[in-house]
Amino acid sequence: MVAETVGPKNLPVAAAKVVLSLAFLVFGANGFLHFLPMPPTNPKAEEFLGLLSSTGYLHVVKALEMIGGALILGGRLAPLGLLVLGPILVNIALYDLFFDPKGLPVVVVLGGLALFIGVRHKEHFLPFFRPHRDHCTFKGK
Fold first, then answer.
1. Is residue 69 assigned to a domain?
2. Residue 52 included in any domain
3. Do 38 and 27 touch, CB atoms closer than 8 A?
């Protein structure tokens, strides 16, 4: 279960964390164990996935999916899990957009869950959007 107090106010966030993290844990593990069949797709998509798989790239992505899912499920490091999964979600959306549009509804739901969780942890992300002037000026001789 999510490692934070689950009260009426936190229940939607906890549910979103469980759903998002389980999706990435299951599909990440499927990349190694192949317990779910892959749906048929078009030849260009199969060629693309074959190239990614033959280089070992997909194993890294699947491992990162499982790490991100575990971080979100653990609770305390959920913002770090979102940082890991964010680029993966973007790549899944691009794959679906260019190769398999039938998958777009799933990535929209997963992206929505990630944004919902991210908004609830906004205090961890706001520093990325604040300018730090101390580090931008050159202080030479």
1. yes
2. yes
3. no
Residue 2 lies in a domain: no
DSSP state of 77: T
What's this model's pTM, rounded to 2 decimal places?
0.84
Q: At what angle do helices 11-33 and 78-98 cross, to 10 degrees?
A: 60
Identify the helix (H) or strand (E) that includes residue 15. Answer: helix 11-33
- Give the DSSP per-residue string, 95-135: HHHHT-GGGHHHHHHHHHHHHHHHHHTHHHHGGGGS--GGG
Where is pLDDT greater, at 37 or 135? 37
DSSP state of 3: S
Task: Retrieve residue 28's tokens.
Answer: 């990440």
Whether residue 20 lies inside any domain: the answer is yes
How many distinct structural domains can be found in the chain? 1
Which residues constitute the domain of residue 112?
11-130
